[in-house]
Amino acid sequence: MPPPRAPRPLGTVTRGTTNPNRLRRMDRWITATHGAELRRAADPVAVDLGYGAAPWTAVELLHRLRTVAPHARVVGVEIDPARVAAAEPYARAGLVFRHGGFEVPVSPPPSLIRAANVLRQYDEDEVAAVWRRLCARLAPASGHSRGGLLVEGTCDEIGRRHVWVALGPEGPRTVTLATRLGSLDRPSDLAERLPKALIHRNVPGEPVHAFLRDFDRAWAAAAPYASYGARQRWMRAVRDLTADWPVTDGPARWRQGEVTVRWEALAPRG
C-alpha cells in the first residue's frame, strides 16, 4: 500500500519577485523591536514565508537576526517546490528551506514569521483568516514574553517604500510606515504600499485615509525644516502627528524614516 500523500500546502503561488536587500527596512525594524524576544527564546526560529524565486531575503534575514540573537535559525518556506529545490544550495548552518504555505511546517513554534509581499495577490476578505492561521502558529505568550511576532506587509521592488502590520498571538498590534526619505514627495506616496488589509480602505471615511491626510498636512507644515534635510522634516512631521495619533515609537526610529502607529487607530471600520 503506497504511503499517504503529504497534505497540500495552504495558499497559492506568488509571482516570486525578489531582489537582494529588498526587505532591509523591515529587517532593521524587526531586529530593533523584537531582538530582545529572540534572545530570550530557548530556540529562536524565524520563518521567511514566501521568499520567492530566489532565497536572497532568507539569507539576509539570518545574517541580520544573528546580529541581535546569535542562536537564531531561519526556515525559508515556499509553496512552489521548484523554488525550494533552487534554494537548497544556499542552505547552511541555521538556514534551511521547506515546502509549505500558511500551515507553516516548522517546529518549535516560530518566534518570528515574516510574510512580505505574500498577501498582495489575495482578496481583502481573505486576509483576516490568514492572519489568524499564522498567529496561531507563533510561539505563545508566557510570563516573560509577549510571544512570537508576525510581520506582514508590502514594499516596492527595491525596498525604498514599505508598510507592514505587526501581529502577536493575540492579533494585530501596530502598523509601520518606512521609507527612503530622499525618494519621498509626501507621506501619502506610501499609500500604494499599504498591505492588503488597508490598501482598499484609503478612501474618505476610513481611518487610514484620515491618517495619511493628516500626515501630508504635517509634512507641509514642516516644510521649513527641509532646509536641514528630509530627515529633519520627517521627524518634525511625525512629532506633530503624535498630538492626534497614537504613535508608539520615538525619535530613534523616526530618524530611520519610520513611524509606527497602534493598529486600532488605523483598522478598517466595520
How would you characterize this protein structure?
With 270 residues, this protein is α/β, with parallel strands linked by helices. It is built from nine helices and eight strands. It has an eight-stranded mixed sheet with strand order 3-2-1-4-5-6-7-8. Helix 1 packs across helix 2 (56-65) and helix 6 crosses helix 7. It is globular. The protein starts with 23 loop residues before the first helix and ends with a helix.
In short:
The chain is α/β, with parallel strands linked by helices and 270 residues long. The protein has helices at 24-40, 56-65, 81-87, 124-137, 196-199, 207-221, 230-241, 251-254, 263-266; strands spanning 45-49, 73-78, 95-99, 112-116, 149-155, 161-168, 171-179, 258-262.
Listing every helix as H and every strand as E from the N terminus to the C terminus, the arrangement reads: HEHEHEEHEEEHHHHEH
**What is the approximate shape?**
globular
Secondary structure: number of strands: 8
Distance between the termini: 51 Å
Number of helices: 9
Strand order of the largest sheet: 3-2-1-4-5-6-7-8
Estimated helix fraction: 25-40%
Strand content: 15-25%
The structure class reads alpha/beta
Using the CA coordinates, give the radius of gyration.
19 Å
> Which segments are poorly predicted (pLDDT under 50) over 5 or more consecutive residues?
none
Largest sheet: 8 strands, mixed
Q: Can you give the mean pLDDT?
A: 95
